[in-house]
Design goal:
Elements (H helix, E strand, L loop, with lengths): L5 E5 L7 H9 L2 H6 L1 E6 L1 H15 L4 E5 L11 E6 L24 H19 L5 E4 L4 H6 L7 H9 L5 E6 L2 E5 L6 H6 L3 H17 L7 E3 L15 H15 L12 H9 L5 E4 L2 H12 E4 L4 E5 L2 E5 L5 E4 L16 H27 L9
Parallel strand pairs: 1-2, 1-5, 2-4, 3-4, 5-13, 7-9, 8-9
Antiparallel strand pairs: 6-7, 6-12, 10-11, 12-13
Amino acid sequence: MQKKPILGITLGDPFGNGPEITVKALAKQAIYKRCRPLVIGDAASLVYATRVAQAVSGLDLAVRAVQDVGEAAFTHGMIDVLDLGYIKYDDIPGDPSQPAPFGLGATRLGGEAAFQAVSRAIDLVMGGALDAVVTNALSKEAIRAAGHPYSGHTEIFADRTGTADYAMMLVHRDLRVVHVSTHVSLREACERVKQDRVLAVIRIAAAGCRAIGIDNPRVGVAGLNPHGGENGLFGREEIDEIQPAIEQALREGIRIPDRRPVPPDTIFSKALGGWYDVVVAMYHDQGHIPVKVKGFVYDRAAGRWKAVAGINVTLGLPVIRTSVDHGTAYDQAGNGQSSEQSLVHAIDTAVRMVRARARAKAVRSSRKEPADGGPR
């Protein structure tokens, strides 16, 4: 029987909603049937979150601090946490018996704790102690206040793993989107739509689908300009940069059903209709908006989010990393009301990717001829 993968789950910003949604997710016994979860962060944050969860939802969970992956028991009801010790219980404002938002925003302490948790997780997965990493939300402002000049998780993973060609894939059910650029200004995003980068992302998108078990994925490629540029009337990026990338990808055997860039105002409707397995978006909001329109559901009557679904997968890395696709929710962190749905989906996707990678490795091994040329 294949061993259940070990997943490192980083807490994200300790003053955001990461600790409480981690507790809610790991309260589900089904998670432990699929994987062996190890939280990476600060035990004090998890202890506080378990007390909030008990006050709000009646959940009865314990926290067990460990200093090494090998010490973890991976038993439902007892959350293992690799305790980094940056946050002390007294650092957390509020009273868990009377849950309420912390009222804190981005802080240097929170940024340092979040960054160190990610750094430790990357070291562990690169060293083979973890099979994948699942991240909760951190604050770019907070980690910069702590002296770490990154614009987000994706850039931290790319830098620490020495990865040059990488991309972000957002996933909500069967809607998958990979971006040519993400955390840059809109002006710079337009300037980054170049043939080499577009081609690299098409390749990464196809490989990313294969990584989750889609063997021969169909890739849709969005245009940049309104109406796809109208044959150069509204811009030439489609003609000069995107189309040549598509033609090269087609020569390489990548399936692109339209064989051309598709106007951005229609490509996502086609994706939802099952026309593609993944869409290559040209910039951050072009891809994020449709995914969040589908995955984020606001309950008007209750005055809060009913569902916060969708996840983020970093493609092109030598390791597996998935993440929630929402922010730190400073405005509600501490009240026990945040939805764990996105985190549960991120855990499920990480497990799926670990198993798909293992299957691919087994296939490659079975096809490998013996060194002496003799019978297998």
